[in-house]
Amino acid sequence: MQWIRYLRQGFIEVADTRYDLTHMRSSAFELAVAATVRYPALALRIEVEFTSHCVSFGPKAGEALDFDALGHDRRILDHRAVARAFCFDRYRWSLSLPTLVRTLDGHFCNFTGQGNWLVIRAVDDEGWEVDYEIYFRLRRQDKNALRMVIESAYVRAPGTPDPGVPHDRKGRIRFQVMAAKVFRGEPLRDPSHHRR
Predict the structure, then answer these.
(1) Per-residue b or e along 11-49, where b marks 16 or more CB atoms closer than 10 Å to that residue's CB
(2) Residue 82: CA atoms inside 13 Å, Cβ hemisphere, count?
(3) Tens digit of pLDDT for each residue in 169-182?
Protein backbone atom coordinates (compact mmCIF):
# COMPACT_ATOMS: atom_id res chain seq x y z
CA MET A 1 0.00 0.00 0.00
CA GLN A 2 1.14 3.58 -0.59
CA TRP A 3 2.49 5.59 2.34
CA ILE A 4 -0.21 8.25 1.99
CA ARG A 5 -2.90 5.58 2.38
CA TYR A 6 -1.25 4.25 5.54
CA LEU A 7 -1.18 7.80 6.91
CA ARG A 8 -4.88 8.31 6.15
CA GLN A 9 -5.66 4.94 7.73
CA GLY A 10 -3.56 5.92 10.76
CA PHE A 11 -1.80 2.59 11.27
CA ILE A 12 0.00 -0.35 9.71
CA GLU A 13 -0.70 -3.91 10.81
CA VAL A 14 2.27 -6.29 10.81
CA ALA A 15 2.00 -9.89 12.03
CA ASP A 16 -1.31 -9.15 13.77
CA THR A 17 0.15 -6.17 15.63
CA ARG A 18 -1.15 -2.67 14.92
CA TYR A 19 1.43 0.15 14.82
CA ASP A 20 -0.08 3.60 15.18
CA LEU A 21 1.07 6.11 12.52
CA THR A 22 -0.92 9.17 13.56
CA HIS A 23 2.28 10.81 14.86
CA MET A 24 3.57 10.75 11.26
CA ARG A 25 0.71 12.83 9.89
CA SER A 26 1.41 16.40 8.80
CA SER A 27 1.73 18.87 11.63
CA ALA A 28 2.91 22.43 12.22
CA PHE A 29 4.72 24.50 14.79
CA GLU A 30 5.46 28.18 15.31
CA LEU A 31 8.99 29.51 15.11
CA ALA A 32 9.92 32.94 16.49
CA VAL A 33 13.07 34.40 14.95
CA ALA A 34 14.54 37.30 16.90
CA ALA A 35 15.27 40.62 15.22
CA THR A 36 18.83 41.39 14.17
CA VAL A 37 20.57 44.64 13.28
CA ARG A 38 19.66 44.04 9.62
CA TYR A 39 16.29 42.28 9.85
CA PRO A 40 13.05 42.56 11.84
CA ALA A 41 11.74 39.70 13.98
CA LEU A 42 9.85 36.92 12.21
CA ALA A 43 6.94 34.78 13.32
CA LEU A 44 6.96 31.74 11.03
CA ARG A 45 4.72 28.71 10.79
CA ILE A 46 6.62 25.52 9.91
CA GLU A 47 4.42 22.96 8.11
CA VAL A 48 5.97 19.51 8.67
CA GLU A 49 5.56 16.40 6.53
CA PHE A 50 7.08 12.98 7.28
CA THR A 51 7.98 10.49 4.54
CA SER A 52 7.79 6.71 4.84
CA HIS A 53 11.58 6.59 5.17
CA CYS A 54 11.17 7.60 8.82
CA VAL A 55 9.61 4.18 9.56
CA SER A 56 10.92 1.94 6.76
CA PHE A 57 14.11 0.76 5.08
CA GLY A 58 14.83 0.24 1.41
CA PRO A 59 16.85 -2.27 -0.56
CA LYS A 60 20.62 -2.12 -0.84
CA ALA A 61 21.96 -0.82 -4.14
CA GLY A 62 21.29 -3.31 -6.96
CA GLU A 63 19.13 -5.56 -4.79
CA ALA A 64 15.42 -5.98 -4.10
CA LEU A 65 13.72 -6.61 -0.79
CA ASP A 66 12.48 -10.18 -0.29
CA PHE A 67 8.96 -9.75 1.07
CA ASP A 68 8.44 -13.52 1.10
CA ALA A 69 11.06 -13.59 3.86
CA LEU A 70 10.26 -10.20 5.47
CA GLY A 71 6.48 -10.51 5.30
CA HIS A 72 4.22 -8.89 2.73
CA ASP A 73 2.41 -6.93 5.43
CA ARG A 74 5.62 -4.88 5.93
CA ARG A 75 5.58 -3.58 2.33
CA ILE A 76 5.16 0.21 1.99
CA LEU A 77 5.33 2.09 -1.31
CA ASP A 78 7.13 5.38 -0.81
CA HIS A 79 6.43 8.68 -2.61
CA ARG A 80 8.32 7.39 -5.69
CA ALA A 81 6.40 4.07 -5.63
CA VAL A 82 9.55 2.22 -4.46
CA ALA A 83 8.82 -0.76 -2.23
CA ARG A 84 10.27 -0.42 1.25
CA ALA A 85 9.91 -2.54 4.39
CA PHE A 86 8.41 -1.35 7.66
CA CYS A 87 11.27 -1.18 10.17
CA PHE A 88 10.51 -1.90 13.82
CA ASP A 89 13.59 0.01 15.02
CA ARG A 90 12.92 3.12 12.89
CA TYR A 91 9.30 3.03 13.99
CA ARG A 92 10.26 2.97 17.67
CA TRP A 93 12.56 5.98 17.21
CA SER A 94 9.95 7.81 15.11
CA LEU A 95 7.67 8.09 18.13
CA SER A 96 9.94 10.88 19.46
CA LEU A 97 10.45 12.52 16.04
CA PRO A 98 7.58 15.07 16.09
CA THR A 99 8.75 16.37 19.47
CA LEU A 100 12.37 16.57 18.31
CA VAL A 101 11.33 18.52 15.21
CA ARG A 102 9.32 21.04 17.27
CA THR A 103 12.40 21.74 19.43
CA LEU A 104 14.84 22.49 16.62
CA ASP A 105 14.74 26.26 17.14
CA GLY A 106 17.89 26.39 19.26
CA HIS A 107 19.82 23.63 17.54
CA PHE A 108 22.41 23.39 14.81
CA CYS A 109 21.89 21.55 11.53
CA ASN A 110 24.67 20.03 9.43
CA PHE A 111 25.20 20.55 5.73
CA THR A 112 25.16 17.23 3.85
CA GLY A 113 26.14 18.42 0.38
CA GLN A 114 22.95 16.81 -0.98
CA GLY A 115 20.65 19.83 -0.72
CA ASN A 116 19.17 18.62 2.54
CA TRP A 117 20.06 19.02 6.20
CA LEU A 118 21.09 16.70 8.95
CA VAL A 119 20.41 17.00 12.64
CA ILE A 120 22.35 14.64 14.82
CA ARG A 121 20.85 14.03 18.23
CA ALA A 122 22.48 12.12 21.05
CA VAL A 123 19.66 9.92 22.29
CA ASP A 124 20.06 8.00 25.52
CA ASP A 125 18.11 4.76 25.08
CA GLU A 126 18.64 1.81 27.39
CA GLY A 127 21.83 3.44 28.65
CA TRP A 128 23.50 3.85 25.24
CA GLU A 129 24.20 7.06 23.38
CA VAL A 130 23.44 6.88 19.66
CA ASP A 131 23.23 9.23 16.68
CA TYR A 132 19.62 9.66 15.60
CA GLU A 133 19.98 11.31 12.21
CA ILE A 134 17.15 13.44 10.87
CA TYR A 135 17.39 14.48 7.20
CA PHE A 136 15.07 17.21 5.96
CA ARG A 137 14.45 19.86 3.30
CA LEU A 138 13.12 23.32 4.06
CA ARG A 139 11.31 25.51 1.50
CA ARG A 140 9.18 28.65 1.58
CA GLN A 141 5.51 27.67 1.58
CA ASP A 142 3.64 30.98 1.50
CA LYS A 143 3.59 34.47 3.05
CA ASN A 144 4.38 33.39 6.62
CA ALA A 145 5.13 29.67 6.36
CA LEU A 146 7.89 27.26 5.49
CA ARG A 147 7.44 23.65 4.42
CA MET A 148 9.69 21.09 6.09
CA VAL A 149 9.84 17.58 4.66
CA ILE A 150 11.48 15.04 6.96
CA GLU A 151 13.01 12.78 4.32
CA SER A 152 14.47 10.16 6.63
CA ALA A 153 15.32 9.53 10.25
CA TYR A 154 17.22 6.61 11.72
CA VAL A 155 19.92 5.54 14.13
CA ARG A 156 23.12 5.03 12.18
CA ALA A 157 24.77 1.71 12.92
CA PRO A 158 28.39 2.13 14.08
CA GLY A 159 30.92 1.87 11.26
CA THR A 160 28.46 2.55 8.42
CA PRO A 161 29.31 5.94 6.93
CA ASP A 162 27.22 7.12 4.01
CA PRO A 163 28.10 9.44 1.10
CA GLY A 164 27.23 13.02 1.86
CA VAL A 165 27.37 12.69 5.63
CA PRO A 166 29.80 15.27 7.03
CA HIS A 167 32.24 13.15 8.98
CA ASP A 168 33.91 16.18 10.55
CA ARG A 169 30.50 17.83 11.05
CA LYS A 170 32.05 21.31 10.91
CA GLY A 171 29.66 22.73 8.32
CA ARG A 172 26.62 23.65 10.35
CA ILE A 173 24.06 26.39 10.77
CA ARG A 174 21.62 27.25 13.54
CA PHE A 175 18.08 26.18 12.60
CA GLN A 176 16.63 29.66 13.27
CA VAL A 177 19.21 31.26 10.97
CA MET A 178 18.47 28.67 8.27
CA ALA A 179 14.72 29.24 8.52
CA ALA A 180 15.11 33.02 8.29
CA LYS A 181 17.40 32.74 5.27
CA VAL A 182 15.09 30.31 3.47
CA PHE A 183 12.13 32.58 4.20
CA ARG A 184 13.97 35.61 2.81
CA GLY A 185 15.23 33.66 -0.22
CA GLU A 186 18.88 34.05 0.74
CA PRO A 187 21.48 31.44 -0.23
CA LEU A 188 22.73 29.00 2.40
CA ARG A 189 26.48 28.50 2.29
CA ASP A 190 28.40 25.78 4.06
CA PRO A 191 30.89 27.71 6.23
CA SER A 192 33.34 24.77 6.30
CA HIS A 193 33.90 25.23 2.55
CA HIS A 194 35.20 28.76 3.12
CA ARG A 195 37.80 27.89 5.76
CA ARG A 196 41.47 27.99 4.84
Answers:
(1) ebebeeeebebebbeeeebebebeeeeeeeebebebbbb
(2) 15
(3) 567 888 999 999 99
